[in-house]
Amino acid sequence: MKALFIGGTGVISTAVVERLAKDPLWEIWVLNRGNRENELPTNVHQIIADINDEQDVALKILDFEFDTVCQFIAFSVEDVERDYRLFKNKTKQYIYISSASVYHKPVPHYCITEGTTLANPYWQYSRNKIASEEFLMNKYRTEGFPVTIVRPGHTYSERYIPLGVRGKNGVWQIVKRMLEGKPVIIHGDGMSIWPMTFSSDFATGFCGLMGNPKAIGEDFHVTGDEILTWNQIYQTVADALGVSLKAYHISSEFLSATGDHLGYDFNGSLLGDKAASVIYDTTKLKRIVPEMKTLVPFHKGIRIAVEYVLSHPEECQKEDPEFDKWCDDLISELEIAKENMRKWQR
User: Fold this and answer.
1) How does DSSP assign 92-111, residue by residue?
2) At what angle do helices 199-209 and 13-21 cross, to 10 degrees?
3) Is the backbone of residue 125 left (phi > 0), alpha (psi -120 to 50) or beta?
4) 3-state SS class at 311
5) What is the pLDDT of residues 134-148, one digit of tens each?
6) 71 neighbors 52 (Cβ within 8 angstroms)
7) For the chain, what are the domain ranges?
8) Contact, 114 vs 82, CB < 8 A?
9) Selection from 6, 73, 15 nearest residue 202 by Cα
10) Cis amide bond preceding 106, omega within 30
11) Which of 156, 283, 155, 128 is nearest to 220 (CA)?
């Protein structure tokens, strides 16, 4: 069987490509701009192109047909409309990577199934994913376009430490604050629950959907079974770093009001996603991919990630002085406000 990955070197797609590269049943092709060619397994074939250059891609795939096309980097309706034109006669299955953030906010029930209403007024990213899903499912219903929708939860890998309140340059500045003994902002009271999935576990579920006729025209959560509070997540990271956690809790609404104007988009990423307590039901996935399970629990996966991040400074340690100062200033102002209230109450 032949698979094409559009992207193929991201947090979740890398794990899928690496898993399939070991499977003799699959011939793997990756279409991207070739910026990370050395990260691909040696038996993976590459089509160097910018997926946004539709005419060039059409020429380069002219003589190809695929059993499965996996799209990891489509974020708008225009993206999937382009893919439909490119692949409608060239694949037996088109897997679209959506997001678990597409579900109704505020959350009507903590346990979310694939049948939960799609609606997120807080986050444009999620609304774009919803619109893309609707386009693709309409093409399936009216023309038989063989789409499968995958909604990942919070997936992390050896190169990525998953934390909530972050700046524009990733999570390293939060890790650095932990190492320096500085307070670290956690949204809300830290007690909302959140699923975490290591990338290799995600790959198990995803690969089970590839080439599977039972997956056509369906949507699936691909998430692990481990559920943690955000306090537990941050504490586990601190434990892996060998430092004490100095947690500083601030409401998500306050973070959005004070950080969005700097481009941090806490309105979307927190109010539209991480502030909610959620569990994603994976019963549907496990019915057709029974091998899907959590093999890398968070306390082990995060140690793998911490070791990699600390040992690869050029790749993983991008500092963010603006975010660091914002954290310091926000915490300082809140402490002043607390002291002023104490004086007023005396």
Assistant:
1) S-EEEE--GGGB-SS-S-SE
2) 70
3) alpha
4) helix
5) 999 999 999 999 999
6) no
7) 93-334
8) no
9) 15
10) yes
11) 283
**Cα R_g (the chain), whole angstroms:** 21
| pLDDT tens sequence across 161-193 | 999 999 999 999 999 999 999 999 999 999 999
- Tokens encoding 112: 């979310």
For residue 111, which of 286, 278, 227 has the smallest C-alpha distance?
A: 278
DSSP secondary structure of 209-253: HTT-GGGTT-EEEE--S-EEEHHHHHHHHHHHHTS---EEEE-HH
In this structure, are residues 156 and 197 in contact, taking their beta carbons and an 8 Å threshold? yes
The answer to whether the predicted template modeling score (pTM) of the entire model surpasses 0.90 is: yes
Residue 43 backbone class (left: φ over 0; alpha: ψ -120 to 50; beta: rest): alpha
Residue 220 has pLDDT above 70, yes or no: yes
Nearest to 8 by CA among 65, 58, 62, 68: 68
Sheet with 45-48: strands ordered across? 45-48, 27-32, 2-6, 68-71, 94-97, 147-152, 219-222
From the list 16, 321, 301, 17, the residue with the least C-alpha distance to 160 is 301
- Neighbouring CB atoms inside 10 A of 141's CB total 11
The confidence band for 38, taking pLDDT boundaries of 50, 70 and 90, is low
Closest to 228 (Cα-Cα) out of 181, 195, 201:
195
Identify whether the C-beta of residue 231 lies closer than 8 Å to the C-beta of residue 186. Answer: yes
For residue range 62-106, what is the model confidence (pLDDT) as tens digits? 999 999 999 999 999 999 999 999 999 999 999 999 999 999 988
Tokens standing for 90? 């060239």
Burial label, 143 (beta-carbon count in 10 A; 0-12, 13-18, 19+): exposed
- Helix residue ranges per DSSP H, the chain: 13-21, 54-60, 77-87, 124-143, 172-179, 199-209, 230-241, 252-259, 266, 283-288, 298-311, 313-316, 321-345
CATH topology (fold) of 93-334 = Rossmann fold (3.40.50)
The answer to whether the Cα torsion of 156, 161, 165, 169 is positive or negative is negative
